[in-house]
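hey can u check if this looks right to u? its 201 residues, i copy pasted from the old doc so theres a chance i mangled smth
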Amino acid sequence: MARYTGPKTRIARKFGEAIFGPDKVLTKKNYPPGQHGANRRKKTSEYGIQLREKQKAKYTYGVLEKQFRNLFEKASRTKGIKGEVLLQLLEARLDNVVFRMGIAPSRPAARQLVLHRHIVVDGKVVNIPSFSVKPGQIVGVREKSKSLEVIGDSLSGFNHSKYPWIEWDQNSLSGKFLHLPERADIPENIKEQLIVELYSK
């Protein structure tokens, strides 16, 4: 499965947010990239604002267009507020759950751990980053991967209490996905209603 591998700082500057995690360049240059980025005053259309929000969500969760549209269509068929359900589906992706549990320092790093078969779900190896974790399932580190330095460094000092939908067990290096998160508990700065409006055109 293809994924975005281009310059992340440029994308973060485009949105004016550290969507890929802490970024030293962004703190110094918090304006769009390019020769005239600091002085650009172009008015964005309603469609442009909606498209920008969709792109922000895609880059934040590391999902490409086809996957994103499929998730939106699934959210449309699911009972609940469409935009909120979409974010819940994104949060339930295995690579995102691994990131939220602190097993990896970023979503791209979590994706790598999943692809390289370091992660288990209910005791079985799952190497599909887009795998949808269901409430009640246990996500953890494979036994022979528990000594990996990248995992130890990431878990060191990580505050698991900030995500109330996850119950972490440090002894087994695993966590229980208790339930889908409420919108208020999802920390991402995404205006999901704009995405719903875009796809509803």
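The longest helix spans residues 46-61.
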